[in-house]
Design brief:
Length: about 130
């Protein structure tokens, strides 16, 4: 199966040796997105609500570059610095994923890149 890297200027450039997403057949595997400004690469916000919005906007940009949208997402993983933030993240997440919502895991972690409080990755299916 051929794989293709997805890259868009509308999402933050990778901060390491990885792709924003990889398309393999009908699947798109999106790397975790954090709340970085796509233009400057700087952290835009410190509160969980604003970070979640930026993360999901970045994720949407990567999905769009791959030729799909949130309606194609079949699985997400949310990484949170604190599970206390889960209700806030869940409320915002529900505005981006409607209809048949993706399967999802949410994991509390001790630290995330750039000390953000939320990171979200996704797998989409374009079949």
């Amino acid at each position: 199966m051929e794989k293709k890297a997805i890259l868009t200027d509308l999402a933050p450039k990778p901060i390491g040796p990885y792709s924003q997403a990889i398309q393999a057949g009908p699947f798109v595997f999106c790397s975790g997105q954090i709340a970085l400004d796509p233009k400057t690469g700087t952290l835009l916000a410190t509160d969980v609500e604003a970070q979640t919005v930026q993360v999901l906007d970045n994720l949407k940009a990567v999905l769009t570059a791959a030729g799909c949208g949130t309606e194609h997402v079949v699985k997400t993983t949310i990484f949170l610095k604190s599970m206390n933030d889960f209700p806030k993240v869940n409320e915002i997440y529900g505005k981006y994923f409607t209809g048949v919502t993706p399967a999802r895991s949410t994991i509390e972690v001790s630290r995330l890149p750039r000390d953000v409080v939320v990171e979200i990755e996704a797998v989409a299916f374009k079949g």
